[in-house]
Amino acid sequence: MKNHKTLLVLLIVLALAAGCSQAPPPETAEEILSRSVDAHGGKALTDWNNMSVRGKVLYNDISVYNADYLLDAEKPDKLRFEYDLTADKGRQFMIYFMNGELAWSQRNLLPSGHNPRLMNDIKRKMQQCNGIAYYAENSDKLIWEEDADVEFKEEETIIKTVPCYVVTSIIAQDTTKLFIDKEKYYFTQEQYPRVVRQFTDFKKFGSATLPSKIVENLESRYGTQVRPFTINEIKFNITMPEETFTEDMPEKQ
Fold it and tell me: Domain segments of the chain: what residues?
């Protein structure tokens, strides 16, 4: 009997200790994002000069190809990303560039010249290189919305549901909904006009904890296009070839 009482006391003490170790609920939208930044590695999210990402993407070009995906970024305003369908017997490869005030693309070695319409999309991709820290540091206003569940699907089957805090970020004219895992504080979903991006399978890349699986849902006049990415490698502060951000660079107008 004495042993049972001792065991009961021990269980109560352990339960109280576990309760005390849990952080109290966040009180503001700013605190939610701050905890998310910490969960992803804190300063490691932004403390880099350049970033190199390598992976694969299922890209629909009549048929679906397991294309190579490459992204190189250099602060403050240089970025290059590629979809190479020829890696899976496709016929296309597309490269998109930003260098300062210029944005251009290349399709099968044919350059486009400066294309101002690309600029906003490529700028956003540059911002996304900083993960949740971009919104934590740059939002003009944060609004804590009603909590919601994020559903992860394979085809039409729900395979996982993650309860999330929902925060709306307003930066100038851009409004973005941010979904933050209520338990781990991982940045789980990003939603802005015509685009929903979901993040899973978080891994350590350097000192940062980042998703190794990303699914982009893109709305267009042709319907919804789904692009699943698998990120195999992310490196920071490496030596990049000089021409990385200048290939077929157009002259300023």
Answer: 24-245
Question: How far, in whole angstroms, is CA 54 from its chain's centroid?
Answer: 14
When pLDDT is averaged across residues 202-213 and rounded to a whole number, the result is 98
Place of tokens 């540059």: 126
* CATH class of the domain defined by 24-245: mainly beta
pLDDT, residue 3, reads 52
Question: CA-to-CA distance for 180 and 203, rounded, in angstroms?
Answer: 17
Sequence length of the chain is 253
Kind of pairing, strands 78-84 and 63-74?
antiparallel
CB atoms within 10 A of CB 91: 10
d(CA 130, CA 237): 14
Beta bridge partners of residue 69, listed in sequence order: 55, 83
One-letter amino acid at 232 equals N
- Choose among 76, 117, 116, 97: nearest CA to 253: 116
DSSP 237: S
Residues near 221 by beta carbon (within 8 Å), at least 6 away in sequence: none
pTM equals 0.88
Let me know: does 65 contact 212? Beta carbons within 8 Å. Answer: no
Residue 28, pLDDT above cutoff 90: yes
231 vs 18, 70, 86, 157, 200, CA distance in Å? 35, 9, 18, 23, 11
125 contacts 81 by C-beta, under 8 angstroms: yes
